[in-house]
Design a protein that fits this description.
CATH class of the largest domain: Mainly Alpha
CATH architecture of the largest domain: Up-down Bundle
Number of helices: 18
Number of domains: 3
Shape: globular
Oligomer: single chain
CATH topology of the largest domain: Butyryl-CoA Dehydrogenase, subunit A, domain 3
Number of strands: 14
CATH superfamily of the largest domain: Butyryl-CoA Dehydrogenase, subunit A, domain 3
Largest sheet: 6 strands, mixed
Strand order of the largest sheet: 2-1-10-11-7-6
Strand content: 5-15%
Length: 483
């Protein structure tokens, strides 16, 4: 097989039978046609079609090392700095298509699987079969161009205790028994973005586990099809209100669903397991394999595209209503420009300082990527704030497409024009600004970016704890000791 088209992506979805609970309804078929998911699924189909766009095919695909057929560039194992740039260009092409609003496109988990495959020997420490399992699975996803997502954390009923201790350890997904053919998982996990329409669910480690017998049932990594028996998804309220693109330009296209994953005695065959009962391997899952470096490389590329979009949007806004000459407006624009150039510099530094890891993979330097992933969750919160401030009360005056072409058309043409735009064009622009900074979709985007890598406070603690400050302390001590 080869890189999929949008039509092939939709056909596979039509053949799947996931169990999705959404707004009091249980959906088990034709997920691609359900109003809660139809818009974003079409957006994902467009991404797959881009793989055959004459201008992007060579960017988004590469020949498979086994079949010679085109497969996604995100599966490319980088051996050189040029390979890293090639991967980044592919990430950027997809991110540009959604203005960075799609956070779980396939290249994110593909990057993780690429690194895990390269580190198959690391998995083989526990059992040689696990190394072979990750190799076979990576090749399957690459050759079938599967869309994968993953779960992140256990449910938190009581945040005063660890996730694995919630309700006496009965809430978090855990191994409840083992048989000759695999393990059985019971419990729940959060928070699986795009789970209702992904092909595969990757259930990977997310929290630090202690090497105790109590943590052993929570120590695993495996992959299962999205419609595996006993697997259920509880989707949050959809933010696509099935309105025209004019009225909800972002939400109608890019509203990725988030879901709680319930494992009702789900059987996982051994051939789909990569780690079992080994807390130490789980704790090193991302860092020791280089997976976190490559995943973050994709994320920073996406957030760069998102910041470019915000800069373009705020520039059109200030131009339309004639406010760019004011100093406080220029200060806000400068803040967005500085954020954009920072992200570009982080990417450039990560690629320039990349080095081969122990598995022969050219791995982006983590220091600049780690800085970016600690900064951006906070920096992004300023963008909706800036747009709200500059759009001001004009953001309240956003009629719908039916109004623009209905009885109010003449009034809109006369009274809602701007310095550079006709009334209808100004309404269209302001609808886009509104959907970026005020709408429910915009609120979810801000929350999503803030917690993308986890709690920013805990991330900051880990950042400080892992950063080697001894050389800088030594410099200050040496200065103080100067005669």
């Amino acid at each position: 097989m080869a890189a999929r088209t949008g039509k092939q992506f939709l056909e596979r979805l039509a053949a799947s039978r996931p169990t999705v609970h959404v707004q009091g309804e249980t959906v088990t078929e034709n997920i691609q046609d359900h109003p809660a998911f139809r818009g974003v699924i079409r957006a994902y189909a467009e991404l797959y079609d881009l793989q055959y766009d004459p201008g992007l095919k060579d960017v988004l695909t590469q020949p498979s090392p086994t079949s010679g057929e085109p497969v996604g560039t995100s599966f490319l194992t980088p051996r050189t700095h040029e390979d890293l740039v090639r991967r980044r260009n592919a990430f950027k092409a997809w991110a540009d298509h959604s203005n960075g609003m799609l956070g779980r496109t396939g290249d994110y988990m593909n990057s993780s699987l690429m690194a895990l495959n390269s580190a198959a020997d690391w998995f083989a420490q526990a059992d040689p079969a696990f190394g072979e399992n990750i190799r076979r699975y990576y090749e399957k996803v690459r050759e079938e161009d599967l869309l994968c997502t993953h779960t992140l954390i256990p449910p938190q009923a009581n945040r005063a205790v660890s996730g694995t201790a919630q309700a006496g350890g009965k809430l978090a997904a855990r191994i409840v028994r083992e048989d000759d053919n695999g393990v059985v998982i019971r419990g729940a996990r959060m928070l699986a973005t795009i789970a209702p329409f992904a092909d595969e669910m990757l259930v990977f480690p997310s929290t630090v586990l202690r090497g105790t017998p109590e943590d052993k049932p929570f120590s695993y990594a495996f992959a299962i099809p999205n419609d595996t028996k006993g697997l259920r998804y509880i989707a949050r309220e959809p933010l696509d209100y099935v309105r025209p693109h004019h009225d909800h330009p972002l939400g109608s296209r890019f509203e990725e669903s988030d879901a709680v994953v319930v494992f009702d005695d789900v059987h996982v065959p051994y051939e789909r397991c990569f780690v079992l009962g080994d807390p130490e391997l789980c704790n090193g899952f991302y860092s020791r394999t280089g997976s976190v470096n490559h995943m973050t490389h994709q994320v920073v590329t996406r957030t760069t595209a998102k910041t470019e979009y915000v800069l373009g949007l705020v520039s059109l806004l200030t131009e339309a209503i004639g406010i760019e000459q004011f100093s406080h407006v220029q200060e806000d624009i400068a803040e967005i420009i500085a954020t954009l150039e920072m992200l570009r510099a982080f990417l450039r530094a990560a690629e320039a300082d990349a080095a081969l890891n122990e598995y022969g993979v050219m791995t982006p330097a983590f220091a600049p990527l780690n800085a970016a992933r600690n900064l951006y969750p906070k920096l992004y919160q300023r963008f909706p704030e800036i747009l709200r401030k500059l759009g001001a009360s004009g953001l309240m005056a956003t009629p719908t497409e039916l109004d623009v072409h209905g009885p109010a058309a003449a009034d809109i043409e006369e009274y809602l024009q701007s310095a550079t735009l006709t009334g209808p064009d100004r309404v269209r622009l302001f609808r886009l600004v509104w959907d970026t900074c005020i709408s429910a979709f915009a609120g979810r985007q801000a929350l999503y970016e803030y917690y993308f890598f986890g709690d920013p406070v805990r991330m900051a603690g880990a950042y400080v704890g892992s950063y080697d400050r001894e050389p800088y302390k030594a410099k200050v001590r040496a200065f103080m000791e100067r005669p």
